[in-house]
Amino acid sequence: MVPQQEPFRFIDEILELDDEHIVATYTFREDHDFYRGHFPGNPITPGVILTETAAQAVVVAFGIALVARESGRNEVEKLLTIFTDCEVDFSGTVKPGDRVTTTGKKKFWRRKKLRAEFEMKLDDGTVVCSGEVSGMGVPR
Amino acid sequence: MEQSEVMERVVKILTPWVKDEGALANVGMETNILEDLKVNSARLVDVVIAFEDDFDIEIADEDVDKVNTVGDAVTLISAKL
User: Which of A42, A130, B16, B42 could form a disulfide with A119 if both were Cys (CB 3.0 to 4.6 A apart)?
Assistant: First the structure.
């Protein structure tokens, strides 16, 4: 039910999900267009894309699940989740072909606004970014 | 707690989210939080949680809908102290 689709979908699989947390994975395709410019000859996933990746899992997918549990799936169809604010620290780089696993934990869920702290790791355990992301459901 | 003290704390709590800092110079009970102070509506939940933490009170979601001005917030908070 996550509305973002290719080429702007950064969730492959949701591994864990309950009322308090979510774990999701995504593997960055080597043919993503942004690698052509970021950077020529040295492709690195932009921080804004990593932030979007975290937000799609931790705010959008998690938020949709919380709305569905609270108000039913019909309510989900009426809302669009918007990204409202974030604070992110970057501590590693993500190359084309890398898989990242994002773990998000709910800080608050109120009036359809969700804030969650998150950590994103490579398969070798390296933390590439962490912080908090927030979003809220608004009528479509 | 005196209403003036509540007012002072409310304004202090709001300040990090105020986009029109000039409006803070003339803030009063009639000052609209969204329209005058230009607080992003998406931040209202953050503001309410900050009110709850600072004053050690609970604010029901339905009460949040009644808060438009600084005075509304001061009145609501004062009633819970």
Answer: A130
